[in-house]
């Protein structure tokens, strides 16, 4: 019976895996179908636009040629009309002179005949008919405007879609992941991709898409991020910056474009993006700390004088008696793991048991006091403050009454002569026992602890008056190498 149940469980597991695979496949097909419809509409619209441009060009060229022919016709007509008018006038003058000459032949008187003959001779000399060119000024030949668009027609008949470039090939060995940026390099499609077609177009630019995933498989799983786009890349290389590495991998693919024709995407590659990711563990947050995403703010409950630091100097001597007792404070909150009293602490939700880790902190504009560091989760009591015991290390900053910066551990504090940083980088090398605090804006080491960690660590924060925000999913920055080489000789507060 047990063996049959175990076999059935294996079958169920196999069916469940196949079911998930089929669901992912169907989602991929549906996504492809949607993309096909969108792309079809786009290329159809592009085709209509190109045909409209072609028709417009033909209309413009036809109008230009028609105007040239019309202009030449009007010029020749004007010349011929002028000759026609002059010829008609000469013909009338010639007919009148001919009639006069015929009448002169009938004159019998010698004196009248000689006078008329002289007049005729003079009129013939000045007659328009004898000064007029009797050949048309222009010909009716318009053969210089003969056209033959057979070559153009043949060209139109050869019109076809642009040859689509093949997919580039991403060179995984040349891709670089550094400082939360990824530099992707690929090999462009070769000249053979055009198939020897002289009408092929050169590649104008590339499109790159990437998405975060926790699987090295390129098939998108339901619930994972969609592709993000980087367009109009000229060179076969691009750097994607400002990334948060909150997934195990980033899948990347690229395609080439020539004019408006886009080829197929390359086979995606999965680039590993290892980084330390954590969030605030809201279940540990002091009741007066409000956790919202990557931000923690101090929101006091009850009267302003709940914390003794906010009372007047005249009440300083009685501040202890006015502070709610730990037991009363604990009873007013739900959750046994919450910090209480004057600790104002919240922990991170991801442990560090080996390796190197890095995150950053920024105080909000209205901050008065905060601490940041690491702690053994099990070593902190509900009312403990960071740096008071052997299981926590922190950097404490304050601008309450006066500005101060100190490194704290095991109830010992070392005052640091450094301006209050606006952006603090925290680096923890669990295996080597290094805990460094960096002024990121000035790229200076503020303080370094050297110890030996023996229990799982969690990020730890104290906030009083104001708030802080953190940045996680960060790789260990390359600039940390400069601090690590000099840190070996630095003294620390603990052995």
From TrEMBL:
InterPro entries cross-referenced by the UniProt entry: B30.2/SPRY, B30.2/SPRY_sf, Bbox_C, Butyrophylin_SPRY, ConA-like_dom_sf, COS_domain, E3_ligase_FN3/SPRY, FN3_dom
Residue ranges the record marks as coiled coil: 44-88
Regions of compositional bias (Basic and acidic residues) in chain numbering: 304-317
CDD domains: FN3
Domain COS intervals: 105-162
Residue ranges constituting the B30.2/SPRY domain according to the UniProt record: 258-479
Biased segments, Polar residues type: 318-330
SMART domains reported in the protein's UniProt record: BBC, FN3, SPRY
Region of interest called Disordered, as start-end residue ranges on this chain: 296-336
Keywords from the named record: Coiled coil
Fibronectin type-III domain: residues covered: 164-276
Transmembrane segments: none
Matches recorded under SUPFAM superfamilies: Concanavalin A-like lectins/glucanases (SSF49899), Fibronectin type III (SSF49265)
Pfam families per the UniProt record, alphabetical: fn3, SPRY
Name of protein: FSD1-like protein isoform X1
Taxonomic source organism: Pundamilia nyererei
């Amino acid at each position: 019976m047990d063996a049959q149940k175990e076999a059935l469980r294996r079958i169920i597991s196999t069916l469940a895996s196949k079911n998930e695979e089929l669901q992912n496949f169907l989602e991929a097909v549906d996504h492809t179908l949607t993309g096909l419809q969108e792309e079809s509409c786009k290329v159809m619209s592009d085709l209509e636009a190109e045909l409209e441009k072609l028709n417009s060009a033909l209309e413009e060229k036809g109008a230009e040629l028609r105007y040239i022919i019309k202009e030449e016709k009007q010029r020749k007509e004007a010349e011929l009309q002028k000759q026609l008018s002059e010829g008609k006038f000469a013909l009338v003058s010639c007919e009148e002179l001919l009639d006069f000459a015929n009448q002169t032949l009938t004159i019998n008187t010698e004196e009248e005949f000689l006078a008329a003959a002289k007049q005729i001779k003079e009129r013939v000399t000045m007659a328009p008919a004898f000064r007029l060119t009797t050949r048309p000024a222009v010909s009716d030949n318009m053969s210089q405007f003969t056209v033959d668009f057979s070559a153009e027609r043949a060209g139109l008949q050869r019109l076809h879609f642009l040859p689509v470039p093949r997919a580039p090939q991403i060179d995984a060995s040349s891709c670089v992941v550094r400082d939360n940026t990824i530099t992707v390099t690929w090999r462009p499609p070769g000249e053979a991709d055009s198939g020897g077609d002289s009408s092929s177009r050169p590649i104008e630019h590339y499109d790159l898409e990437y998405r975060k995933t926790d699987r090295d498989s390129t098939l998108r799983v339901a619930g994972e991020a969609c592709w993000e786009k980087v367009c109009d890349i000229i060179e076969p290389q691009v750097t994607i910056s400002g990334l948060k590495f909150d997934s195990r991998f980033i899948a990347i693919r690229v395609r080439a474009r020539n004019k408006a024709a886009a080829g197929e995407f390359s086979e995606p590659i999965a680039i590993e993006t290892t980084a330390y990711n954590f969030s605030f563990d809201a279940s540990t947050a002091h009741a007066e700390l409000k956790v919202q995403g990557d931000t923690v703010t101090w929101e006091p409950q009850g009267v302003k004088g709940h914390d003794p630091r906010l009372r007047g100097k005249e009440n300083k001597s009685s501040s202890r008696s006015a502070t709610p007792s730990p037991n009363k404070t604990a009873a007013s909150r739900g959750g046994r793991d919450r910090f209480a009293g004057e600790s104002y602490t919240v922990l991170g939700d991801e442990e560090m048991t080996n390796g190197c880790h890095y995150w950053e902190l920024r105080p909000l504009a209205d901050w008065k006091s905060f601490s940041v560091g690491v702690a053994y989760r099990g070593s902190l009591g509900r009312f403990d403050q960071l740096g008071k015991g052997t299981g926590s290390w922190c950097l404490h900053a304050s601008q309450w009454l006066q500005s101060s910066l100190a490194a704290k551990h095991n109830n010992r504090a070392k005052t640091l002569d450094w301006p209050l940083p606006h952006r603090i980088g925290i680096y923890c090398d669990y295996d080597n026992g290094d805990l460094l605090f960096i002024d990121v804006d000035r790229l200076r080491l503020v303080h370094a602890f050297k110890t030996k960690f023996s229990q799982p660590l969690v990020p730890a924060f104290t906030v009083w008056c104001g708030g802080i925000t953190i940045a996680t999913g960060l790789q260990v920055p390359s600039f940390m190498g400069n601090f690590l080489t000099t840190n070996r000789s630095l003294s620390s507060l603990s052995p």
